[in-house]
Design goal:
With 130 residues, the chain is mainly α. The protein is 73% helix and 3% strand.
Length: 130
Amino acid sequence: MRILNISNPSKLKYLAASYFVLLGLLNLIDTLLSTISYHYSIRDLIILISLSLPLLINKRLFYLAFGLLAAIISLMILIVYLFSRNPIKTDTSIWFFLLGSVVYSLGFLSSLGLVYVGTYTNEKKRFKLI
């Protein structure tokens, strides 16, 4: 029984990995624009390189490991964000709360997409864990 009807998971692989690269790139741009010292930009370059590793290393087990690690981290961040915020204070804070929820939910779904790509085998067109 197929849950998702994706015949070619490479599109999903590039979409999910590009979301993480986009987040890393936005973090680097924000750091470059908001700080005078470029000392912190080296840290953000390392973050950007580590987030772009799924595009550089094309191994199935690497997608699985990166996706599982990202899924655990993004799920914890999403749960903490949802239960620690109180958007009732002003009218505009509800929209920012929903925007943050969408961003963190997309991160979680992208990491699940990488897990999906990591468990898909091309030889038999089915899922295989290891």
